[in-house]
Amino acid sequence: MVEQENEKRKxxxxxxxxxxxxxxxxxxxxxxxxxxxxxxxxxxxKRVTSYFRNEQxxxxxxxxxxxxxxxxxxxxxxxxxxxLILETNLxxxxxxxxxxxxxxxxxxxxxxxxxxxxxxxxxxxRKVIKDKSRYFGPKTAAHKVIKTLKLLKRxxxxxxxxxxxxYNVRNEFKAKTMxxxxxxxxxxxxxxxxxxxxxxxEYKKTVLQVIDFLEGKYEDIVEQVKQDMMKxxxxxxxxxxxxxxxxxxxxxxxxxxxxxxDPHQKDLDIISYVVMxxxxxxxxxQLREGKLIDQENFVFKSTGDQETxxxxxxxxxxxxxxxxxxxxxxxxxxxxxVDEQETIENWLTDLKGQKVHLIIPERxxxxxxxxxxxxNAQSYARQSQIKWQGHEKTSRQExxxxxxxxxxxxxxxxxxxxxxxxxxxxxxTVSSMVVFENGFPKKEDYRHFKLHQQTSGAPDDxxxxxxxxxxxLKYLKPNKALTSISVKKSTKKHVxxxxxxxxxxxxxxxxxxxxxxxxxVKGHIQITLYDQEKNVKKLLISRLExxxxxxxxxxxxxxxxxxxxxRIYLKCDETDQTKFEEVGFQHLQKIPESFPSLTGQTYLVxxxxxxxxxxxxxxxxxxxxxxxxxxxxxxxQKAMKKYDLNIPxxxxxxREEEIFRPDRPDPLILExxxxxxxxxxxxxxxxxxxxITYHQKLRLKATTSSVLDTIPGIGESTRIKLLQKFGSxxxxxxxxxxxxxxxxxxxxxxxxxxxx
Length: 756
Prior knowledge:
Layout: H1 2-17, E1 24-29, E2 35-41, H2 44-53, H3 60-68, E3 71-76, H4 80-94, E4 109-113, E5 122-125, E6 134-139, H5 142-155, H6 170-176, H7 180-186, H8 200-214, H9 218-234, H10 238-257, E7 268-276, E8 279-288, E9 291-301, H11 306-324, E10 331-333, H12 341-352, E11 357-359, H13 364-407, E12 415-424, E13 427-437, E14 440-441, E15 447-450, H14 461-473, H15 480-484, E16 485-489, H16 492-502, H17 504-507, E17 511-517, E18 520-533, E19 536-546, H18 552-562, E20 567-573, H19 577-583, E21 586-587, E22 601-607, H20 615-618, E23 623-627, H21 630-642, E24 649-653, E25 658-660, H22 675-703, H23 716-726, H24 729-734, H25 737-744, H26 746-755
Helix pairs in contact: 4-12, 9-10, 14-21, 25-26
C-alpha cells in the first residue's frame, strides 16, 4: 500500500513538472479513471501545482479531493474565455463529484415558441436546440410554467394542440378534423387556425403578444388590448368588446402583482443565495424594462467547505445558469466578487452579443433589490427544509425505531448527539456537537468546543475526541460527590495547622477554607481580596492544596457558590491550566496590576455572569454518534468511563460507512438506501459542516493579526491581498519570489522572503 502511494506521488510529481504555463482546462481523475473535478486556469502549471504545494492550507473538500487524485489531464486553449467555455461544457457533461453542481438538466423546463411555423406552437420542452424557435428559461418548476401558460391562453387564445397546420391545405385538413380543436374555437379558447378562421399573419400577432408578455412588456400589450376593445365597441360588437374587457382586467391584475420594480426601466438579473445544511439555495429575480417578470429558485449541492463556498458557489451558478439561459440582460447584480470576473463578463457579452456587466451594488435601489433577493433565498431555503422534513417525518420516525431494534436500545433514540473534530495541521483544533431530535436538526442545541489539543504537524484525533466528550459529559456525571464534599470557612484549629505549615505571614494574607469529604479533611483553599471597585471584589484563589482523590470540579463549584463575587480569579501552574478550564475557568488576558507577577504559573478567571446553566448540555442524549472509526469511538468511551456513565454510543466511519459499536469487533453495514444510514449520514455531515464553519472563523480571526504586520512595506491592504492570494502565512512563505513579485513588486517581495 505504501509502495503504491509512493508510485502515485512520483507519477503526479512528474505530471506537475511538465505542465505548461498556458491557459487551459484541467481534469482531476481518481484511480478508476473517473473525472472528479474540472477547473480552468490562466496558468495551468501554477494553478494545478497549487493543489499539491499548499495542501495544508486547503479547505476540507479540496484536501479530500487531492487525496483521491490519481491522474491529471488537461487541454490547452488560446484564451481565458475559451477555457471558461470548455470548463462549462465539461462540467455539464461529466458532472464531477467535487464541483459545485446545479441540478441535472432534466429538472428544468423551457417555454418553446415555434416562430418558424405558419401557426407557431407554444409548449414546454426540457432542452434547447438550435432551431428558429424562441425559448424562455430555464424554469425550475414545470407546474408553475403550465399554470402560466393556462393563464396566457385565457388572455391570448393561441392553439395548444399538436397539429402542424399548412395554411395552403387547411381546407382539406378541415374536412378531416372535427371535434376537440373546433370545440376549443367555439369556446373562444383558440383562434381556430385549423378551421380557416385566422390567417398566419393574424395568428402571429397574438403569438408576438405572448412573447411581449413573457418579456415583461405589459404596457404595450395593455395599450393594444384597449384599442381592440374600443374598436369592437365602436363597431357595436359588444360581446367581443366584453371578452376583450375581461382580458384587459386579467392583464391589469398581473401588472398589479408586480410589486418589485426599477424606476430606471432597466433589464436586470438579481442573484443572491444562502447556504443551509448541505445545500446552497439561489434566488434569481428577472427585471425587464423595470418590471419583475420572473423569480426562480435553484438548489446546488453544498461542498461543506465554507472557506471556498462563497466564491465557488457564485462562480458555478453564473457559469452553469447562463450557459442554459435564453435571455441575458445587460446588467447582473451579484452579492460579492467572483473569480476572473472580467473573463465571465466577456463570456456573457459573447453569449448576448452586447456588453454585459456584473455589478456589486453597495447602496441605493440596486442594493435594496439585492437584499430583497437575499431575503427570498432565505425564505425559499426555510420552506424547502420544512417541506422536506414534512415528507421525511414518518420515515425518520421509522428509522429511529429500527435503530433502537438493531442496537438493542431500551427506547427509540429521541435525542441524537454527533461529534466531529476539525483542525489546521494539528492547530486551531475545534470540535462540534450537533443535535437531532426526532430525526431532524435542532440547531439551537448545537455547541462547539475550542480544544486544548494543539499538536502542530501531528494532529491527534483520538485525544481531541476524548477531550471533547470529557468536556461535554461532565455536565451529566452523577452528583454523589456534591453531598459528600463540603467547603467551609476554616476553624481556629485548622488556621493554627495552616500557620504551622505555611508560616504566619502566608496564613494571614487571605481567608482560608477547609475541604472535607465524609467529614475528613482533604485540603485547604486560600482566597485573597486584592482590590474592590464599585462594590466589585477582585477575589483571588491564591493557594489550593487538595488531595488528588478529591473531585476538583465539585470543590470549585462549591467555593464559587460560597464566595460573594461575580468574578473569581485563580493562580495555578501552567501545566494544570487544562483541568481548571474544564471546570469553567478561562485564561486571563489582562492581569490586574495588583496581582503579583508569576513565573511558571498563570492566572485564570471564572465569570459567574457567563456561566448560566446550558440547557443543551443539561439534556441527556439517547444515543451519541462519533464521526470516525474504532479509534475515535474508543477515545470517546474513555471519557464516558471517567464519569461512570452508560449512554449508548456508536461511530460512523466515512470510507465504507461502517457503524462501529463498543466491544463489538465487527462493524454493522447497512444498505446504501437504508433510511437509518441516510439519517446517520445527515447528522454526521451536519456535524462535519458545523465543525469546519467554526474552525474557519477562528482561522479568519487569526489572519487579522499576523507576522506580516511587523514587516516593513507590508501594509493592511497588501497583507489582505497576500492572504487572499496564498491562503495563509505558510502559503506566502512557500510562494516563489516570482509569484510574490507579481503581487507586491520585487523590492517588497525580497524583504518579505528575507523576513519569513
